[in-house]
Every structure is written in C-alpha cells, then in structure tokens.
Design the sequence.
C-alpha cells in the first residue's frame, strides 16, 4: 500500500508533505509530565481499549505498545515521521495506533495523552486535517477530553492550548538555503506566528535543505484560521524559492547542471555510501528533477521516497537483521543503484 511519502501533491517541487497534529488530553489523568509509571500504563491500556475497533477506508489500524518494541523499530518509524523523537526516547509506557499507509496515527502518552496525526503528500493540508479530525471525532465520542469553555483544549504546552492544532508543511528550500536567506526567512515567519524548524521538528536541524514550517500557537485562533494563515505564508515561501531557483539557473546553469549530473553518476556507480553523503547527493538529484534539468522515464519516480527508504534503521528493517556500518553502506549503495530513476 502506498505510504504518505510516496504521494505527490500540489507544488511538490517545494512542498514535500502536509501534516496536522491534534493534541488532546483525557480529563481523568494528569498531564504526561506529572504522570506516574502506573498512570502511564493505565492510560495506554484505556486508549487502546476504547479505540480497539478503529477502521478507515483501507481497513483496520495497527495497535502496538511502543515500550515493547526495540529502539531500532521505534527509530525506523521516527525516520518515516510516524513517531516523534520525544516519544521514541520516552521511558514511560507509550502506545501507537497507525493506519496501514501511515497517513493516520495516534501517539499515546507523548507530550500529551493523544497526538492525532494526519499526513498527506504535497500541499494538501486540508486532506491531512480531515483525516485527523475524523479520528478526533471518534476519540471524543468514546473518551472525555480536558476542555475549558474559555480556553479550549487543555494541553501540556501552553502554546498548544485552544484548538490543540499544529499544522505544518515539510518544504524543500535548496535555493533559499544556498543563498543564505533562511535566517531572514525565519525572522519574517515569526512575525506572523509561524516557525521554521528542522526536518524532524522542534530541536532538529535542517537536513539537506528540508525544513518544517508550522504555526506556533493555537490559543485565540480557529482551526480554519490557522490553516488559512499557514497556507498564505507557505504560498509566499514557494514563490520566493521558485524565484531564487530561476535566478540561480539563469546565472549558473552550466555549473549547476554539471554538479547534478556528477551527483547522479556517483549514486549510479557508488559501491558504498553513508547516509549523509547519500542524502546530500539525492537532494541535488531532487533539485535536478524539480527544475527540469533531469527528466525521468517514469513519472512516478519519487526522490523523497528514496530518501526515506535509505535511512539507517529502515535499511535494517528491510534486511531483517543488524548490520555493521560498512555492510549497511554497501546495501544502501546497492539499493540506490536499483531504485535511482532512469534518465
């Protein structure tokens, strides 16, 4: 079944994916930061029990106690953006409910009791919101959420109080990054209540020109207002990135074309390659396809999907065994050679 990161949507040359997270807490439990080990276990069991019959158009959801999975399995899901870094490293009992294509998931006992997440490829935040909102309606019909008539949904972090909605786009900004424009961009976004973060959210760094743009606060804003504001800002970012790409190509086309083809050649013939080098070269390849310098024989080719599949712990899962660094780098290179788009 096609995963969310295999989808291509609107403005896919800049916007890789859309995500909506809804933070919810059960009224009868203290916030996660004040919860005992026994309380955490009780929370996970209750949520799993209440939502045990959850289904969508693709069938049933998968339920798992994250505490019983290996750290390698948890990190692999983090690499695919199913889990947050925070829940991967949490010592208390935690849980996950996830759809087959991983576009819908519920993290149990992360920063909040529930983090309901909807994902969609490209610039399609409305679809992501609809997915998350439908699950929120089901969950609220079975469990009583902590809600205040004045302030809205009560959350562990004050910036999420209100709608509890965090909407974000994962964006590819190679031209703005190369021009040293990201610091200024971040400062401008902050003026409108929008933040620019790394690929894996708060506290992470930008990876090969991939970043997250999301709303900073939810109190005092309606859900649609948050989404509309984010959409307007991201459309401006898209215009800036595309304008910068045009400028760079107009002035340095031959140099950039040579760099992109060199990157393709290295990936096509390398016999071993580490994650950092592979991601850097794939970023250049993605830029080549997005700008038309490279043209694939298969329109369904997706460089970002390849970026996800070559992450260390997803390689381990595919092989079904632990691998040393050299062996893993060899397998990564072989996989890239097999999956790299044919020009």
Sequence:
């Amino acid at each position: 079944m096609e995963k969310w990161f295999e989808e291509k949507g609107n403005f896919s040359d800049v916007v890789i994916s859309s995500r909506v997270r809804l933070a919810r807490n059960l009224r009868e439990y203290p916030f996660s930061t004040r919860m005992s080990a026994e309380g955490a276990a009780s929370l996970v069991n209750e949520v799993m029990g209440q939502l045990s019959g959850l289904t969508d158009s693709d069938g049933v959801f998968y339920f798992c106690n994250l505490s019983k999975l290996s750290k390698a399995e948890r990190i692999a899901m983090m690499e695919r953006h199913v889990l947050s870094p925070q829940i991967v490293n949490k010592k208390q009992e935690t849980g996950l409910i996830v759809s087959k294509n991983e576009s819908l998931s519920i993290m149990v006992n992360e920063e909040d009791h529930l983090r309901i997440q909807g994902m969609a490829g490209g610039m399609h935040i409305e679809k992501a919101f609809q997915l998350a909102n439908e699950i929120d309606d089901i969950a609220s019909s079975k469990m009583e959420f902590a809600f205040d008539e004045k302030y809205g949904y009560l959350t562990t972090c004050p910036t999420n109080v209100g709608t509890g909605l965090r909407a974000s786009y994962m964006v590819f900004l190679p031209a703005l990054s190369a021009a040293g424009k990201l610091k200024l961009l971040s400062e401008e976004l902050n003026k409108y209540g929008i933040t620019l973060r790394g690929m894996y959210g708060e506290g992470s760094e930008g990876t090969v020109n991939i970043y997250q743009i999301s709303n900073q606060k939810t109190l005092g804003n309606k859900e649609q207002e948050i989404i509309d504001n984010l959409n307007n800002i991201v459309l401006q970012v898209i215009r800036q990135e595309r304008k910068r790409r045009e400028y760079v190509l107009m002035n340095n086309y031959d140099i950039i074309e040579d760099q992109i083809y060199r990157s393709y050649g290295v990936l096509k013939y390398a016999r071993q390659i580490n994650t950092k080098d592979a991601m850097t070269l794939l970023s250049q390849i993605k830029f080549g396809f997005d700008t038309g310098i490279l043209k694939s024989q298969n329109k369904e080719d997706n460089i970002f999907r390849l970026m996800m599949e070559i992450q260390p712990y997803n390689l381990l899962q595919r092989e079904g065994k632990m691998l040393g660094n050299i062996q893993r780098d060899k397998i990564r290179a072989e996989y890239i050679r097999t999956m790299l788009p044919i020009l």
